Amino acid sequence: MDTSELVEQAHRAVKRYGVTDGDSFRLKDHDPADTGALSGKDKPRAQEMLDEGVDVLSKMQDMLYAQNRWSILLIFQAMDAAGKDGVIKHVMSGVNPQGCEVHSFKAPTHQELDHDFLWRCSCALPSRGKIGIFNRSYYEEVLVVRVHEGILRAQQLPPSLVTGDIWDQRLKDIRAYERYLARNGTVVRKFFLNVSRDEQRRRFLERIENPSKNWKFNAGDVDERSHWDDYMQAYEAAICATATPEAPWFIVPADSKWFARLVVAGVVIDALASLDLAYPTLDPVQQAKLASARQRLLSER
Ligand code: ATP
Ligand code: MG
């Protein structure tokens, strides 16, 4: 497949799974088992497409880096075992590590809690020319913290600021923050890896039963699973409030890992293809310097 065909296919994936206006968004309208026009028997073909996509992505990233104007922020959110780590590993496998940074956000430290909730993520934003990946993000502040209000109480906030409006306020602040990032040249794309409750159960059991996967199992994840419906409500509210044209959400069907990887690759390719990427060109003065440097090198012989 040539590059333009691949970019065209990527664009279709973006249209199908992207949410740019949250008003009528309902999570139940999105099937975690969806595999588009492909089925399980197309897996080898899907792998080929992913390989081609990774190749195109790596060429685009090279230009992004050389041009040093835009930065890309990819945010991954999901329930446990939805496959965030695998998606990041496979989709970014071809990119130059110098131009890409991955940050994983866990429960905040004391130092992080002494700042506003966006602070630690702001410190980790990608600089111009780079792709930044957030494996979890400030969205945890309206997800896990919303599901377990005890976490909020431990956040050192002045009590007068902790009101019934806090979730709405945080969502509005996130929306404004992402608009601010977009206005400064950071292209924001957000992914919700939509795994079903049944598939999560299957993956947890596999982590327990397969010794080579035991290290991935965390007993606390089973406790979190018991709050599934609360999490889904919190995700829906977050996506409704923060899906915008400048910072869209992508509801990635994640029951088939191979398909989730393909969709994410498509979205990243589409985001890069939408930019005016080009290698910097030299002005006449710089070209003259180049010519003179060439002459000097040639005359060394
Ligand atoms: P994996 O389980 O695949 O290693 P993970 O992203 O689940 O990946 P963990 O170390 O298991 O990594 O979990 C990080 C935990 O930190 C998650 O349960 C998440 O909800 C929690 N967390 C992240 N940000 C916050 C936050 N701001 N406040 C409280 N908890 C948070
Ligand atoms: Mg985990």
Strands, helices and their partners?
Layout: H1 3-17, E1 18-19, H2 43-67, E2 71-78, H3 84-91, E3 100-104, H4 110-113, H5 119-123, E4 131-135, H6 144-147, H7 149-153, H8 166-183, E5 186-194, H9 197-209, H10 219-225, H11 228-242, E6 249-253, H12 257-273, H13 284-299
Parallel strand pairs: 2-4, 2-5, 3-4, 5-6
Antiparallel strand pairs: 1-6
Bound molecules: adenosine-5'-triphosphate (ATP) and magnesium ion.
Structure described in brief:
The protein has 301 residues and is an alpha/beta fold.
Structural account:
This protein has helices at residues 3-17, 43-67, 84-91, 110-113, 119-123, 144-147, 149-153, 166-183, 197-209, 219-225, 228-242, 257-273, 284-299; strands spanning 18-19, 71-78, 100-104, 131-135, 186-194, 249-253. By secondary structure, it is of the alpha/beta class. It has a single domain (3-299), classed as P-loop containing nucleotide triphosphate hydrolases (Rossmann fold), CATH 3.40.50. The longest helix is centred in the first third of the chain and has 25 residues, at 43-67. It is globular, with a radius of gyration of 22 Å. It starts with a helix and ends with a helix. The structure holds adenosine-5'-triphosphate (ATP) and magnesium ion. Magnesium ion is lined by residues 80, 218, 221.
